[in-house]
Structures are given as structure tokens and as C-alpha cells.
Amino acid sequence: MENTKPEDFYKKLKAQIDDTTTVWPSKYLFKFILLTDDGKINTLENLFNHMGAVITKKLSKNEKYTSISILVPMDSSDAIIKKYQEAGTIDGIISL
Questions:
Q1: What does the pLDDT look like over 50-77, one tens digit per residue?
Q2: Is residue 86 part of a domain?
Q3: Could you tell me the residue range of the domain that residue 43 belongs to?
């Protein structure tokens, strides 16, 4: 696995988003994996409250993990990066 600083990761992600998205607002699909913990899942869902998000959750085979997909209209690549940074404060979250 590559050892990348978070700021480098976000800079690269912003460039990729800007290269592929030319019209804003645009729908963006966030994907996360969390330990199955109602508190952490609720915290993540609350980050996207009142944004018109469509949230899909799926338990792993052994139900230890939950994958969460969030399709939501976003106003800019900067707004997307900000959401990833906010989600990154949740202990144990994996952003895909």
C-alpha cells in the first residue's frame, strides 16, 4: 500500500474530480467502510443531512463491517474534499 500524506491524497483527488467534472452542481458518489457501529454510521449519515443524499448500506458477510454509498449533489470539488475530511474524523472509517 502506498504511504501518502493526506494533503497529497486530497490534492490528487481534487485534480481528478476537476478533470472529470465540468458542470456544477454534480452528483458525486462517496463510498465508505465502517465497523458496524450505529453511532459511527449515524455520525456519517448526519454529515450529509439535508443535502438530498441517497444513502445505501450493506453489511459484510459476517456483519462486522458496513459499506455505505452516498450519492449526493455537490457544488464543487472543494466541497467534496471537505466532506471527505469531515468523514475522516470518524474513528476507523475507510474512504474509497
A1: 999 999 999 999 999 999 999 999 999 9
A2: yes
A3: 6-95
Q: Which residue has the cell 458518489?
A: 29
Assess if residue 62 is contained within a domain.
yes
What is the CATH classification number for the domain harbouring 32? 3.30.70.260
DSSP the chain: -----HHHHHHHHHHHHHHH--SSSEEEEEEEEEES-HHHHHHHHHHTTTTT-EEEEEE-TTSSEEEEEEEEEES-HHHHHHHHHHHTTSTT-EE-
pTM: 0.89
